[in-house]
Design goal:
By secondary structure, this protein is an alpha+beta fold. It contains 14 helices and 38 strands. The two termini are 37 Å apart. The relative contact order is 0.06. Pfam families: Omp85.
C-alpha cells in the first residue's frame, strides 16, 4: 500500500457493511394499527408508456400520481432515525381504482391528450405477523398510455365590444397561446387571466372572467371530451385523416351575453382621500384636525409626522385618469415596502356621474418610529494563528432603527459593537465598531442619469423597490502584544429589484425571474495597521504574515446581480449570482497612491445554485468560481515591488461550515503546495486569488421530536483556492492555478449531517472526511490518505451551508 495511506481492506469492508445496513433500514417499513381480516393498500405504482419526452415524463408522472384516489395512496410516517411506518391504513376498495382511472383520464384530457388508455392491475400479498395477525397487502399498478398530444393551430378573438376586441388584438404578441405548442386547459385559463388583467388595467373595473370564455372547434374538441362514446371518437378521428398523426385544435376567445352593462363600462378615478397618520384604535370615520390638497389628493392629518408631497408622489391613482388595477396594487405595495407604516388600507367606492367613477380612500397606520435591539454574544477561539491557547469572547451589540427619518420614510440604522477576548493576559483582544446606514426610498441621481435605471414598469417586468444606501463605518481592533488596527469604510450605492408580472411559461404560474441588483459606484476602505515588535519577529519567521498584515486602501466600484427563478410549482429553484469589484483604476493614476497603500485589482466571482424539492427530501447543488487580477505596485524602502495577491480581507478562502467542510476555515490550499504545512506554521490562514468549488447535498427528513424537525443530509464538496506564493525567492508552482495540475490540486470531501430545524433557525452539525487531499498530491494524487474513523472534521453551522 502507498505510504501514508491509512485505509485497509477491513476498514473499507466495515464501512460498506455500515452503508448497506443503513440502506436496508432506510427501505424498511412497518405497518401499525391495521385490520388483519381486511386487505389494505400497501403500494400504488403508475407506469407511463408512450413516446412522451423525458422531461415531460417526469412532470406528467408526478401529476398522474396526484390523481390517484386518496384511499389508494400510501402515507408513510417517519419514525426515529431511518425507520418508517404505515399507520392506520384504510380498507382496500376496488371501487376506488375506478375513481382513480376517471381522475387520471380527465387530467390527460385537460392536458390535450385524446384517446388515452388507462389499465389497472392489483394483487394481494399475505404477510405473516405473529404479534398483530397477518397483513393483507394490496399492490396496485396503473399502466397509462397518454395517446397523441394535441397542438394549437389557430387562435382568434371575437369579442362583441369593440374596445375590448381592440385591446385583445393589440396585445396578441403577448398571448400565451402560440401556434404549434401543446394544448392544455391551463394555457387557455392563463390566456383568459391575461386578457382580464389587460382590461382591468385599462379602466374596466367590473369586468370579470365570467364575461369571456374560450371556444374550441367542435370536431376536434370532441376528441378530448371525456363524456363522448369511444366509438364516436374513432368516427370523428377517421373523418380527420389529415390530422390523424398530428391533431390540432382551434381556439377562439369570445364574450358572453351581458347581464350587467357596467361590466363593459370604463371607470375613472374620482376623489382620492388620504389619512397618513391614523391610529389602529381610531373609529372607522377618523376625526382629524387639519386638511390640505396636494397634487389633487385630499389629505386629512393629525400631525406633521410626514411630508405630504412625499406621500403624494408615491400615489399612482391620479384623479381623472382611467382606473388601473396594476396601479392600485402598486400603491399598496409601495407603502408597505417603505416601512414607515405597519398597515396600509386602500378602498374603492363606485360613484356614477357623467362617467363611472371610483372614489379612493387611503388609510395609513404608522409603525413605531424608533426601535432598539440589544444582543449579547459569546465565542470560543482555540489556538488561532497568532498565538496558542484558548480564548473566550464577549460581545455586546446595539442597533437603533429610525423608520421615518426626515419625515420621508427614510430609514436609518445605527449599530454599535463592543467586544473583548479573555486570554492569557486577561483582556487579550479589544474590538469596537460604530456604523451608520441611511436608506433613501428612491434613486438619488441627476435626471439625465436617472433615466438609466429601470422604471417602475417596463414591458412585463416591474420594479419592486429602488433605494439609495449611504454607509459609514469605523472600527478599532487592539490585539495585545501584536497590533492595533483602526479602520474606516464608507460607500454610496443603489439597490433595486425587478420581477416579471406574468409567467413566461403558462403551464407553470410560479415560473418567473426575480432579479436584484446592487451598484456601489464609490466604496472606500482603509486599514491603518500599527505593528508591535512581537509581530515583526513573527513576520521574519513566517513570510506569509507580511502579506496577511499590512495597511490597505480600497477605492472601488462594485456591481452585483442576483436572479432567482422558480419552476414546476416551487419544486425547482435556480439562483444565479454574479459580482465584480474594481479598485484603483482611476485613483491609481496618482503615483503617490499607486505606490502607497492603494490596492489595484479587479475581482470577479459567480455562483449558481439549483434546488430540487420533493415531499420528504431535496437535492441542492452549488457551483462557485472567482478570480482576481492584481496589477498594483508598492514602494518598499525605495524598491518598486509588484503586487501579486489580494489584501487578506478581500481574498478567497476555503474550509469551514459553509465551504469545504472537511477542512477547518482557511486551512485548505493554496493548490497542492505544502509551504504552510511545516510544524511551526500549521495554523497560518491561507488566502487565494482564485477559487473553484462545487457542492452537492441530498437532504432528507428523519423525524420530529417535541415539535423540532430532525433532518439529515449526505454531501460532497469539491474545490480549492490558488495564489502566487514565493519561497526562498522562487515562485511555488504548486500554489498557482494551472489546468494541467487541476486534477492534482482539487480537493474532495464528503460526509453526513445532523440538522435540528426550529422553524425560525436551524442548528447544523456536519461530519466530513477528506477523501482527496491535495496535500498528498504526490501519493496516488491524494486519494484516501490518512483516513480513519476519528479523522473526520466536525463543523457547527447555523442554517443551510448554501
Amino acid at each position: 500500500m502507498t505510504s501514508g495511506r491509512q485505509v485497509t481492506f477491513f476498514t473499507f469492508s466495515r464501512w460498506s457493511l455500515y452503508g448497506l445496513l443503513c440502506m436496508l433500514l432506510a427501505t424498511s417499513c412497518s405497518v401499525r394499527n391495521y385490520n388483519s381480516s381486511k386487505p389494505f393498500p400497501y403500494r400504488t405504482t403508475i407506469n407511463l408508456v408512450g413516446k412522451t419526452p423525458e422531461y415531460d415524463r417526469l412532470e406528467l408522472q408526478t401529476k398522474l400520481q396526484d390523481q390517484v384516489d386518496d384511499s389508494l395512496k400510501t402515507r408513510l410516517i417517519s419514525s426515529w432515525v431511518f425507520f418508517r411506518a404505515l399507520k392506520n391504513p384504510p380498507v382496500f376498495d376496488s371501487l376506488n381504482i375506478g375513481r382513480s382511472k376517471i381522475f387520471i383520464t380527465n387530467l390527460l384530457h385537460s392536458l390535450g391528450y385524446f384517446n388515452p388508455v388507462v389499465q389497472d392491475t392489483f394483487y394481494i400479498d399475505t404477510v405473516a405477523n405473529k404479534q398483530h395477525g397477518e397483513q393483507k397487502r394490496v399492490y396496485t399498478t396503473f399502466t397509462v398510455t397518454p395517446g397523441i398530444a394535441m397542438r394549437l393551430d389557430s387562435i382568434g378573438y371575437a369579442l362583441e365590444t369593440p374596445e375590448l376586441q381592440a385591446l385583445a388584438l393589440k396585445s396578441m404578441n403577448g398571448s400565451l397561446l402560440k401556434k404549434g405548442e401543446p394544448y392544455s386547459d391551463q394555457k387557455v385559463n392563463g390566456e383568459l387571466d391575461r386578457l382580464l388583467a389587460i382590461y382591468r388595467d385599462s379602466g374596466y373595473y367590473k369586468f370579470s372572467k365570467e364575461n369571456i370564455y374560450a371556444e374550441r372547434d367542435t370536431v376536434v374538441a370532441a376528441l378530448i371530451d371525456p363524456t363522448l362514446d369511444p366509438f364516436e371518437q374513432l368516427r370523428l378521428l377517421d373523418s380527420l385523416s389529415k390530422k390523424r398523426e398530428k391533431p390540432t385544435i382551434n381556439i377562439t376567445i369570445r364574450q358572453r351575453p351581458l347581464k350587467d352593462s357596467a361590466h363593459i363600462r370604463k371607470f375613472y378615478m374620482g376623489n382620492v382621500r388620504v389619512y397618513p397618520d391614523l391610529s389602529i384604535l381610531e373609529d372607522s370615520v377618523p376625526v382629524t384636525k387639519d386638511s390640505a390638497t396636494i397634487q389633487g389628493y385630499q389629505f386629512f392629518f393629525n400631525s406633521r409626522r410626514f411630508k405630504l408631497p412625499f406621500i403624494a408622489t408615491n400615489i399612482r391613482l391620479r384623479p381623472g385618469t382611467a382606473y388601473s388595477q396594476r396601479r392600485y396594487y402598486r400603491v399598496i405595495n409601495t407603502f408597505n415596502q417603505l416601512g414607515a407604516w405597519q398597515n396600509v388600507d386602500l378602498t374603492l367606492q363606485e360613484r356614477y356621474d357623467s362617467v363611472p367613477l371610483l372614489d379612493a380612500v387611503l388609510r395609513l397606520y404608522p409603525a413605531m418610529k424608533h426601535s432598539l435591539n440589544v444582543d449579547f454574544e459569546t465565542s470560543r477561539n482555540v489556538s488561532d494563528f497568532l498565538s496558542q491557547g484558548t480564548y473566550f469572547g464577549l460581545g455586546l451589540n446595539f442597533r437603533l432603527l429610525n423608520r421615518n427619518a426626515y419625515r420621508e420614510a427614510i430609514q436609518t440604522s445605527t449599530n454599535a459593537r463592543f467586544g473583548i477576548e479573555i486570554g492569557t493576559h486577561l483582556v487579550q483582544t479589544l474590538q469596537a465598531s460604530l456604523s451608520h446606514n441611511i436608506y433613501f426610498p428612491k434613486i438619488i441621481l441627476p435626471k439625465f442619469l436617472l433615466d438609466w435605471f429601470p422604471r417602475k414598469t417596463e414591458g412585463n417586468e416591474r420594479t419592486l423597490a429602488r433605494r439609495t444606501v449611504l454607509n459609514l463605518t469605523g472600527a478599532y481592533t487592539d490585539r495585545r502584544d501584536f497590533f492595533r488596527a483602526p479602520s474606516f469604510n464608507t460607500s454610496w450605492g443603489y439597490e433595486w429589484t425587478r420581477r416579471k408580472t406574468r409567467a413566461s411559461d403558462p403551464d407553470n404560474a410560479t415560473q418567473r425571474w426575480t432579479k436584484s441588483y446592487v451598484l456601489t459606484p464609490f466604496n472606500f476602505e482603509y486599514t491603518d495597521l500599527h505593528k508591535t515588535d512581537s509581530l515583526r519577529k513573527l513576520e521574519e519567521a513566517i513570510p506569509a504574515y507580511r502579506f496577511a498584515f499590512n495597511d490597505g486602501m480600497i477605492i472601488s466600484t462594485v456591481f452585483s446581480a442576483t436572479a432567482a427563478r422558480q419552476f414546476d410549482n416551487d419544486k425547482r429553484l435556480v439562483i444565479i449570482r454574479g459580482r465584480i469589484e474594481e479598485s484603483g483604476a482611476l485613483f491609481g493614476l496618482i503615483k503617490s497612491l499607486e505606490l502607497g497603500d492603494l490596492r489595484r485589482f479587479v475581482k470577479v466571482d459567480a455562483e449558481v445554485k439549483h434546488y430540487i424539492n420533493r415531499k420528504r427530501s431535496s437535492w441542492a447543488f452549488r457551483a462557485f468560481g472567482g478570480v482576481a487580477f492584481i496589477y498594483g505596485k508598492t514602494d518598499t524602502n525605495g524598491v518598486i515591488v509588484k503586487e501579486h495577491n489580494l489584501p487578506f480581507f478581500k481574498a478567497f478562502f476555503a474550509g469551514g461550515p459553509y465551504s469545504m467542510r472537511a477542512w477547518q476555515v482557511r486551512r485548505l490550499g493554496p493548490g497542492s503546495s505544502t509551504i504552510y504545512d511545516t510544524s511551526d506554521t500549521t495554523r497560518v490562514d491561507r488566502f487565494g486569488n482564485m477559487q473553484l468549488e462545487f457542492n452537492a447535498e441530498y437532504r432528507f427528513n428523519i423525524t420530529t421530536i417535541a415539535g423540532v424537525k430532525v433532518n439529515s443530509a449526505l454531501f460532497v464538496d469539491i474545490g480549492n483556492i490558488w495564489s502566487k506564493e514565493y519561497q526562498n525567492g522562487q515562485e511555488v508552482p504548486e500554489a498557482s492555478f494551472k489546468l494541467s495540475r487541476l486534477y492534482k490540486d482539487i480537493a474532495l470531501g464528503a460526509g453526513t449531517s445532523l440538522r435540528l430545524d426550529f422553524e425560525f433557525f436551524m442548528i447544523r452539525l456536519d461530519w466530513a472526511y477528506r477523501l482527496k487531499n491535495p496535500r498528498y498530491a504526490n501519493m496516488n494524487y491524494g486519494w484516501f490518505q490518512k483516513i480513519d474513523i476519528a479523522s473526520g472534521q466536525l463543523q457547527l453551522g447555523i442554517g443551510y451551508p448554501f
